[in-house]
Amino acid sequence: MGAMAEVTFDDATWERLFQITGGVFAPCFSCGVCTASCPWGLVGEGKVRIRDLVRRIQLGLDPDSEESLWLCTTCAACVASCPRGVDIPEGFLALRSQAWREGKVPRNLHAVLWAVHWDANPYRRPPTHRPLWAKGLEVKEFTPDDEVLYYVGCTPSYDRRIQKVARSLVEILKRSGVSFGTLGERERCCGDSIRSFGHDAYLRRYVEGHAKLFAEVGAKTVVTTSPHCYDMFRRYYPDLSGGFQPLHYTEYLARLLEEGRLRFTREVPVRVTYHDPCYLGRRNGVYEEPRKLLQAIPGVELVEMRENREQALCCGGGGGRMWMETKPEERFSNLRVQQAAETGAELLVTACPHCITCLEDSLKVVGISGLRVVDVAEIVAQAM
Amino acid sequence: MVESLYKPEEAKGLWVYLEQTDGKLEGVGLELLGKGRALADALGDKLTGVLLGDGVEPLAREAISHGADEVLVVENPRLDVYRTDTYTNALFHVVRSHKPSIFLLGATPNGRDLAARLAARLRTGLTADCVDLGIEEGTGLLLGITAGFGGGILATIKCPNHRPQMATVRPGVFPRPVPEAKRRGKIRRLDVPVQESAIQVLERRVGAEADLTTAKVLVIGGGGTRGDFRLLKELADLLGGQLGATRVAVDAGWAPREWQIGQTGYVTRPKLAIVCGASGAMQFTVGIEGAETVVAINIDGEAPIFEYADYGIVDDVFAFLPALIEQIRRLKH
User: Fold this and answer.
1) Helix, strand, or coil (residue B296)
2) The pTM of the whole model exceeds 0.80
3) Which chain A residue has the Cα nearest residue B266?
4) Residue A123 forms contact with B (CB below 8 Å)
5) Given 1.20.58.220, 3.40.50.2300, 3.40.50.620, 2.60.120.10, which CATH number is that of B14-189?
6) Is residue A5 part of a domain?
7) In the predicted model, what is the mean pLDDT of residues B282-286?
8) CB contact under 8 A, A365 and B251
9) CATH topology agreement for domains B14-189 and B212-332
10) One domain for residues A96 and A137
11) Which of these, A246, A299, A305, B259, has the minimum number of CB atoms within 10 Å of its CB?
12) Among the three residues A257, A273, A302, which one is the final residue of a domain in this structure?
């Protein structure tokens, strides 16, 4: 506990904070499991004191730490343990929206939003370069006759490393005989950066415009590379096309596997462990599909890390943290790659671009050899 | 709306604030004189420089050779270094008694501080951080063009009813005019009361590094430097540039976090970026997307950095840099 401090309560502040957070913190009875389960506790004592913050909002006091507001990776480890089911990350993001109104926002974030506004991606890359990831693959534009719209996403479109994941997915879909297309140059950012920075005003406007695009092209089943785009479409987009069904690719591939359309022909003798991306697992309950895919590959031996499924440790890249620097000694992914190494696996498999980026970085920082990070799609493609 | 302290009808002339530090004019003041000259000519008005400090009168000549018709000089030992209160008070006094129509200041740290204070005290507006200035046809109003967050949106702002029309401009936006030693102008010493400051300067410390986001030349080191930034520093010094680093180099402890360029570091827009031994991960190239010219040196010809580079050199950094440095030295002599 900190030192005793004198505080002044006023109804106006209480009301304002209640409105901003939509009363999300009201059910909390201050047990403190959230603070205890927050991964920030693993890298620095007292960096993010969730219980204190929630209590302050309940009492009508503004957050006492601007920093902790922006540290949250929205991994939802706290939500998984909360006996009252409080959606703590949503409350954090709501408080970030207040920080935008007050201009108390970490540097760089403005520029990211402008990049989304002008270039339809958070990386300032030209929209015309978006389809270049598929060079030589013959990926066609989506038409309503196609079974699925493959929504590639910004990181898989522009990041050289993650482009390999998108290319693997294209191979899998083709070999499984799926008719699909992409939006090509017309594809836009899903808006996850806007949401995770807590800019709710821009988010509302953005989602409205983007949802229309899906309806216009007649997209129903939309398969995403990233769990973040999936989460956006599933939780924040209205169904304007009548039957809009966003799926993460692991869900879709598991379906193909069950239907016998996706078949493995090659053995991949390797020991793997699987890292649950927060936005796939805890936020959307997709735990088993990626595991089913891995276990169906001949030769693959899946071993679990001690923290898996609901208990999985976050990579540190959610909640907009990909655009904010984290000190090397405070990166969750450093701990996660060590957990993976302990299993004796040769491959650390995951299914999220941000996770891949963070985990690969940590392999270098921690200096672990004999372990590689791959995406589920990459190993599936290899076995077909 | 509150009225300004004097009316548009009373206002006359275009002023430029001549910021000086340790008896040297800041470059942005001279740059503003260049632009101010063109604006004043368009208006058929006089261009006046305003100079505050202690023992700074000799600088007035420099301002005249750079385009000023007249320089107002306020000298006082209490104005020896910039302090918010003394400078605001003195300048407020000068503006109120001479009533300029337009007042331009450099968007330096002190210039921003002073301009904002002054504008509030004069009950007028301030268009901060302009990327261009113009004059509206017909009305003769000052147009300040400013960029929104990250440069995405341009807004044109005017101040029709309040005077002076104030704007700040960042250093480097306008070119510095070529001085004409023979230009003639008036130097007027003003007697302005300067109260004692409430601020006591205990110590002045000049930072070792300039701001990476405003650097014209950046020499950036990545993993390929293996932590040896000595040649990079030599090159940066030769070109009057700053050092930067990739996240890999910073994480390895080879460079301070303040040098980091990229998605979670600084987003820069130099005229020239020389990237040494960086593979070119997207998280890094985001930080040099705004560079005018990118030169990449990397031993791996397949490195993605070459997709961003205007000039690519496939070679070992430590083999290439000595030759480059030698050539630049020779050209400089």
Assistant:
1) strand
2) no
3) A108
4) yes
5) 3.40.50.620
6) no
7) 90
8) yes
9) yes
10) no
11) A299
12) A257
Nearest to A324 among B264, B281, B304 (CB): B264
Q: Which of A110, A135, A136 is nearest to A124 (CA)?
A: A110
- Pick the residue from chain A with its C-alpha nearest to B258: A325
| Domain containing residue A34 | 11-102
Q: Return residues 247-276 of B near A (CB < 8 Å).
A: 247-248, 251, 257, 260, 263-265, 267
pLDDT in tens, B293-303: 999 999 999 99
Q: What is the mean pLDDT of chain A?
A: 94
Partners of residue B275 on adjacent β-strands = B220, B296
Taking alpha carbons only, the member of A344, A337, A354, A348 closest to residue A372 is A348
Say how far apart CA B28 and CA B176 lie, in whole Å: 8
Class of domain B212-332: alpha beta
pLDDT digit string, tens, across residues B170-227: 877 788 899 999 999 999 999 999 999 999 888 887 665 567 888 899 999 999 999 9
- Name every residue whose Cβ is closer than 8 Å to that of residue A259 and which is 6 or more positions away in sequence: none
In angstroms and rounded to an integer, the radius of gyration of the C-alpha atoms of chain A is: 21
Residue A6 has pLDDT above 60, yes or no: yes
Give the mutation candidate from B154, B248, B264 for the A interface (greatest A CB count, under 10 A): B264
B251–A325 C-beta distance less than 8 A: no
According to the model, what pLDDT value does residue B35 have?
Answer: 96
Cis peptide before B193 (omega within 30 of 0): no
Residue-range domain boundaries for chain B: 14-189, 212-332
**Structural domain count of chain A:** 3
What pLDDT was estimated at residue A7? 80
- Give A 348-367 residues with CB within 8 A of chain B: 357, 361, 364-365
- The candidate with the shortest Cα–Cα distance to B228, out of B277, B273, B265, is B277
Contact A114 B248 (CB under 8 A): no
Nearest to A114 among B150, B251, B260 (CB): B150
Average pLDDT, chain B: 92
Cβ <8 Å between A357 and B260: no
Q: Is A117 on the interface with B (CB under 8 A)?
A: yes
- Does one domain contain both A170 and A242? yes
Rounded Cα distance between A315 and A39, Å, is 10
